[in-house]
Amino acid sequence: MKIAIVHYHLQPGGVTRVIENTLQAWEENGTEIEAVALSGRAYPGDRLPNTRKIDGLDYSSPQDAIDPKVLTERLRESARNALGQAPDLWHIHNHSLGKNPSLTSAVSLLAEAGERILLHPHDFAEDGRPGNYLSLREVYPRVYPTGSHIHYAALNQRDRDFLAHMLKDRPSPVHLLANAVPPISPFSASAKENTCELPENLLLYPVRAVRRKNLGELALLASAHHDFHFANSLGPTNPQFTPIFEEWIQFGKELDLPLTYGLGEHTNASFPEMVSHAQSILSVSVAEGFGLGFLEPWTFGKGLCGRNLPDITSDFAELGVSLANLYDRLPVPLDCISSVTQLRETIQSALEQFYLNYQQDLPQDGTETAFQSMVANDSIDFGRLDEPTQQEIIRAVAQSWELQQGIQKHAGLEVLAKDIIDRNKQAVAEQFSLTSYAERTLKIYQELLAVEDNHGCQFANGQLLLDQYLSPARLNLLRTS
User: Fold this and answer.
1) Do 218 and 397 touch, CB atoms closer than 8 A?
2) For residues 321 and 424, what is the distance between their CA atoms, to the nearest angstrom?
3) Model confidence at 379, in pLDDT bands (50, 70, 90)?
4) What is the pLDDT of residues 315-370, one digit of tens each?
5) Hey, where are the domains in the chain?
6) What whole-number distance in Å separates Cα of residue 286 and Cα of residue 283?
7) Alpha helices of 255-386 — where are they, by DSSP H?
8) Which of 62, 286, 306, 410 is spaced 20 to 30 A from 295 at the CA atom?
């Protein structure tokens, strides 16, 4: 079996790691697959034995993108030269992300020519990336080809469901293909020389500070749980988020909360030492890709507590990973907010800007739909609010024992028993191993190769996908500008 793998680049990062791990697993399993990785930049690593640099495949604006027919021919020629023949199928990553409309169009040309293709979107232009979406404006009617010879693979259940809705009654199946979670080398029990300076009863949120990580929820939890110390590991690298991050630092100090933002930058302790010292790993993120943060803690031998993202993790329980102790929402009374009218105006403004950025019409009932999706039983989900509203709520909670009791009850933070941790660790090792990932990928390839009729290509209506991601019911004020 000869496979051409395509991505804009092979720089260190998520997609490159997926490609490297897949080829490694095939080799270790003795799977007879010959692959070439085609990218727009020279590969700087040493794990991929067969790569080719394709001019015109790298990130490019619509103005600078090359002729798609030229790019298509370059892809075909390079694949033939590297594999000794035309590939049996193409495995193409993120073709619809809006980073290069020529690749998007080249995929449509390959699809129309009957090439067997696995389209593997890791991220979507429709999901909070209006600039990317607009770069596809001219080619958008042909972004999502369909046919029995074209399959899709999604990282999580939400994306799979959204794609399946767009492709309903189309011949292209959608597979769930969550990334692998490589095994972690055991943290040395003796590597604790710097842990004396770490806070006791630490709940560690091992993430870099970005807005969607919902750092305000750390402060809310800290205001209600005085027996734990809460911390995230790293500060921001995005200068646009730095002022918000520094504001949270000052806010935590002002209220004297058991809280440290950017703990790794205030200690000599290594990351393994911080993890080893922590009572548990914590997550309060409001948006994730495939859900690594819900799987990796168990490989550390640590429990996980905090916020769940059911649309990302819904299939994990079926695979033996129990997240029953996590909360789906963290309700706080609406009367903690001084002006619900102002909140509605904030929601209205955010939606108007969001839809304007996508050049779409906001549904007439959009604001009410968004508001009602956040509210239940006179309470509102804290994690869907903007920073000023979050801070107003935290001030109220910090002064009210009754509100603190409510937060404790709903959050359910606890250090899990070892048997639960061990079961989840085993499930992750079995279900999300490199071997398991390689086997699932191979199975999809075999299904594609078994397709006899590789002629006939149509294009799905991408508006159906955009409408799902844009839905006012999904609005989170931490994901708007």
Assistant:
1) no
2) 5
3) very high
4) 898 899 999 999 999 999 999 999 999 999 999 999 999 999 999 999 999 999 99
5) 2-180+433-479, 186-327+412-432, 331-397
6) 9
7) 271-277, 296-299, 310-313, 340-357, 366-374
8) 410
